[in-house]
User: Fold this.
Amino acid sequence: MSVALAPEVSLRWPAAGVTRVPFRVFSDPAIHALEQQRIFRGPLWHFLCLEIDIPNPGDWRLGTIGETPIVVTRDAHGTIHAMVNRCAHKGALVCLQERGNAEALTCVYHSWTYDLAGQCQSVAFRHGLRGKGGMPEDFDPAQHRLEPVRTTTFCGLVFGTFSDATPDIETFLGPGAAGVIRRNLSRPHKLLGMHSQIIHNNWKLYAENVRDSYHATLLHTFYTTFKINRLDMDGGMILSDDGRHSLSYAKRAQLRESAEYANVHSAQYESGLHGPHLLDAFTEFDDGITHMIQTVFPTLTIQHTLNSLAVRFFTPRGIDQTELFWMYLGYADDDAERTAMRVRQANLTGAAGLVSLEDGCINEFVQRGTRGSEDREAFLEMGGRDVASSDGSRATETAIRGFWQNYRGLMGW
Amino acid sequence: MDQIGPAAIGAALRERVEDFLAEIAFALDDDRLEDWPGFFTEDAAYRIVPRDGYEAGRPIGILLCEGRGMMQDRVLALRTANIFEPHSYCHLLGRPRIARAADGALTVRSSFVLYRTMQGGGTEVFAAGKYVDRIVERDGALLLAGRDVVVESRRVDILVVLPI
Ligand code: FES
Ligand SMILES: [Fe+2]
Assistant:
């Protein structure tokens, strides 16, 4: 195995267990290094890209597992491969562009060439020039390849893992999470747009934030400020059996402007030619769920809120920076009107999301707030002290506790 | 679709357009955000889109306002609802290329660099790119009938809340 061996980190998790998180985990470089091994090379499936990113034979695109650069390809037979994007010669990036199409991958440094499964095919000047130089007689290209990553796909999502111990994807997800992904992504879908954000915090603060259903109406005050009544008939937080994956949902949430807002609103829109309405939505599913945020451990999120369908993926860029990708999707058979609604509702989330833009800075505020307090800890007892689904209430930190329970297990603490 | 090329745009009109574009930037830089929707026609679309998505023709970028009403909503939201670290903008604009479309509107492209200064004192380039504008004349005044803010990078630092 070519796993970089990070030194052990001696960390005693607080006795109160998953209701406490030592702030040190957000800023200690030794912990960050160990995570690359235990989490990102651990027995988990990591999101790499969408299948629609590489629809054709020869397509490739870049991805990342933790800090490790990955290239994902589709070969001539349509099979998807993933490899570390690191030349077997001297370690240069093999693929430079974010995406492309090629019959083979050639490193620009000394022209070592690999097939789309990562096997070295040829190296430049192997037999030297005019009989001089060249590789030793016993050099064998077959002995060299890009470091392989196991791949799998599920409903158009491409995952990769370094570990042989990772179970098949359906076992990893569990029936609940697999069913939710099927609901949202089993139909053919298309990319409506994407962007990313650099947020100035450790990746785990975003992993907490996206599982934190407690903060939604407290930090994000767009709805309440605009006096939009949010009448959630029913909702809750469902965890997978192992507490890894979560689903925050609301059924038949009705977003209606109150009388006050309607006045303001109509005053603003009445004279417009199109009168677009940000919160108009059509019913897509008969399960009554209108808002869902699903997390797949460790760094994938799928949202279907009103008609906004998006895949979010976040990845560490150093210990105190995280890149958060927003991939907005529609279904392949959407008509123009449905597409227009999805386009409009994309305004609610993302780097400029009316409802959620605060998440771009709030985790940085924690990163900055905890500086110098590495020996202190966060307190997570909203909704109890356990890791269990919470029916009927989303004022809970149970999904965050579920994240830490799994994180601790993987890290050996 | 430009019927009349840049050469045919008279100096006087060019000067009006350049002043108009500068005034929009000054309104944003001077925190007169309530004035900003007034630079647009009632039904103008304002979009911030990354260059790669723009060139690929993808409909979702980073931010969209369909009409002046949504622009006013944006300003109201950032004044009253949204929470973010205070910051200010400084736009630098390049010389625009101006042409007239078949329907009489002006199609104007101009480059910009946008510096963002956070309350802690750091000033950084927040965005660079181009404005792709449609400008019309209404009652003797120039107005934006559409503005695509095409940012070079698809990667936003922290968040976007003030219009660019
Ligand atoms: S580093 Fe890639 S060919 Fe030398
Ligand atoms: Fe949030």
Remarks:
- The two ends of chain A are 23 Å apart (CA to CA).
- Confidence is low (pLDDT under 50) at residues 258-275 of chain A.
